[in-house]
Amino acid sequence: MGDAQQTAFLALAAHLDQQGYTFVCPTPESQARVVQQRSGEHGTTLADFFGWSLPTDETTLITLLSLALLEQLRVASIITAAERDGLSKANFRLSNFYLPHVGNSETVRRNRLYYIHSAFPTKDGDAVFFGPDTYFFLDFLDRASGQLSRKTPTTVVDVCCGSGAGAIHVSHAYPGSTVLGLDLNPRALELGRINAALADCRIDFVESDLYSAISSRRDIDLITSNPPYIASSANGDIPVYAAGGAQQGLALPLRIVEEGVKLLAKNGLLVIYTGVPISCRRPDQDPFLERLEALQDMELLEYRIIHPDMWAEEVGKGAYAEVGRIQVVGATLRKRR
Question: Which letter does DSSP use for residue 319 in this model?
Fold first, then answer.
């Protein structure tokens, strides 16, 4: 992705803002249901095209975008050229970065911020995911900011950053901080740079297997993470952006905490949002909370159940055969020394 594509995305976002565009990204299952219900339909609105990923005819696109903008988006490969049937499709979705709501001037600014991610369906191994988990994560980051001292963190790292949602949020919250976004997916990092430009913030995006690119540092004031947490499967049908590895998806989140503490400065904070499988036979047992409470070098400041029953379609089969529900939680920890 080059400068031409970033310029085209900026032009598109400005146009969507002028048109009052709104699209709250749903779960893949909800989007699939809507797309199936509207099978055979052509898009008629901006949300149909850039939200629901419906194919749209040339006449409608010119009405929605203008001929000049349409050509700019095609040159930048944001929109595919019309096929033999005369229909084009967006190669990306644009969603509201924050859940729209009524409030103060800061709310107005947030309501006008858009986020670029992969078009539906997100089946490619390097697909860039966005959805309800991200909205919950950003809301928890807002809450967790109250745990920080009045001193602005010097360096913030968002690990498993994807296309930059957490990094963008903390960059706005702490404009004087150096913010790093780490991820294995080059495609996500490319989109992260564009999303940061849309949000008018400076972030250094670095390709890294967890903390490998910064493993020698010991001066990080804040680590944030919304990592993949769905249990990896033997047949490999879980995309990279969702796979949390062994231990029913807890392996990766636990690594982020246990390896992250080594990089934190004294009194540094780690904020993580993740899913936790709850056994149908032991509904009183939270395996993630137990591991966090056993950490010697970290003090658990907050542990909150954000949603008690996410990804119900995954429960009761495969690695989740003995799981009653998957709850999503947010945890804030402080390094003791």
Answer: G
